[in-house]
Fold these 3 entries.
Entry 1:
Amino acid sequence: MISQNKIKLINSLNKKKFRDQNRLFIAEGEKLVFDLLHSKIKINEIFMRDDWQPSDIIPNEIACAKLTEQQLKKITQLKTPPPIIALCSMPQKNMDTNDWQHGLTIALDDIQDPGNLGTIIRLADWFGIAHIVCSQNTADAYNPKVVQATMGAIARVELHYTNLEDFLTAQSKNKIPIYGTFLDGDNIYAQELSKYGIIVMGNEGKGISPAIAQKINKKLLIPSFSSSSTHSESLNVSMATGIVLSEFKRR
């Protein structure tokens, strides 16, 4: 069973205001929920379809309610309710300045699309990037669409929201290389790339903002290899992130 108050709470988490207020978010689907079960993220409660047998063991200390298909429909954010939904606590994360000096970090300048953000988090997990620093206007990492798009990577990559301009200013003073992609940048395939530093990726429509661009000391270009004079003007930001990370890690 599930109370009306619990249904109301879960549905409210579709909005950032209530996620922040309650410090809670929702994860849906077997793979995602079980990835979170094996992470540091705290799962407060699990709701599962009453005729479904999980393929993994759910710890006894986690409250687990069995619901009908109709009850699951009342709390899902998906078109078709999955067999398992988890109510999770947002982790508390502190930014450690030492993190930026030992590996690559992604910085996001006002990424708006939840699908793009989720894919970038998934890419960070794939390429071993532990931290993503986001501008305060970047999409919320705990938006249900973002969480779903990460395919569990949200459990393994730490996201930090801060004043991105101030953050990059501080890192520049610490002599941290700061990279960004630009149409007038230098061909990424012909440049020396550091094993550590910050890679800035810009907004879907506007790219990297002028204020943030001033903080970047290494401008990169992903060149087009199309023979057509009418090729695409730019790449989707998540696609570009994958290409850039692959080239850094290939070296």
Entry 2:
Amino acid sequence: MPSQTVQWFPGHMAKTRRVMKECLSQVDISIEILDARIPASSKNPEIKKILGQKPILTLLSKSSMADSASTKLWVEYYREKGYPCLAVDSVTGEGFRDIYPYIQTLLEEKIQRYQSKGMTGRRLRAMVVGIPNVGKSTLINKMAGAKKAKAENRPGVTTIKQWVSTDMGLDLLDMPGVLWPKFEDKITGENLAITGAIKDDILDIEEIAMILCDRLRCYYPALLTERYRVSADEQQSLDAYDLFQQIGKNRGFLMAGGRVDEQRTARTLLEEFRNIKIGRITLERPNP
């Protein structure tokens, strides 16, 4: 299981951090995108250090994939911590109408200074940052009203910075996704792996899928029963490996001799989680 290591990080991460610092003088605000399914694990602790005193708006993306009650708790949590925060979703459009007014409020003093210098209507500029596969490019395309930023449901697609204009008086600088060199704990790495922020082909996906089983029986036992027909008793009595095996058996993923096809079971679990076929799920809760 991935934990405190740097071996899976692409080599461009150090370069991205340097470019972010170089571009700070070109923007008025930074927009940090977090994954609403893992609002703590997807928050890069180095971002604040890189951005310094630059205002930051935190957006919890993919909110239609997350548990709405948990998302509400996370928005409140970040606001109480002093991070202006909104829940947004590029598919449903949730929260998008609030982004620009929120930015205007955060930059009220700066806008007033522009106006006092006769720069009324000056376009604002925002740097969009976040980890790989958090939905930055999709969100930017939604804000721009066109497919201007390359976006796919896998990490590492955006590899260079790119400016994108919107009709709301805001220019967006899309930065490559950046992970940090050392995780605080194993759970962070696990959550990033489950959601696809770390590439599957460099992970033990069977182990990742077993960890997902544990998360599901902890937070969403009813969804686990509904989708994979594992009873409450089985969820309580089986360890993670046997629960994973039971799901494979129930889905009929068997090979010669009745052995469970673990690779197929693991890929199915991860794909169905990521495609919301199990349900709307948030893998972590705010600490009080």
Entry 3:
Amino acid sequence: MNDHDVENVASLLKTMAHPLRLKILCLLQDKEMTVGELRDEVKTTNANVSQHLTILRSKGIISFRKDANFIFNKIADNRIIELMATMKKIFCPDE
């Protein structure tokens, strides 16, 4: 890896490393979810979930689509899905 790649990966991992963002990414591995659905799962406010989703979107980690009055969030990069699955396998083997 060259220095530019190292910096990019480090920035991506730093963004993902926040506990709430990591939990959101775990939830988004298998399906799209709205802010309300995520809020219910992570037990925080809509505003807090939205703030973290904005950070994840700014790094290209997640994307969204609108359907009527709902915004569905999903992981935008298959490499992130693979990374999350690998971390789950290594760190959460009993799940």
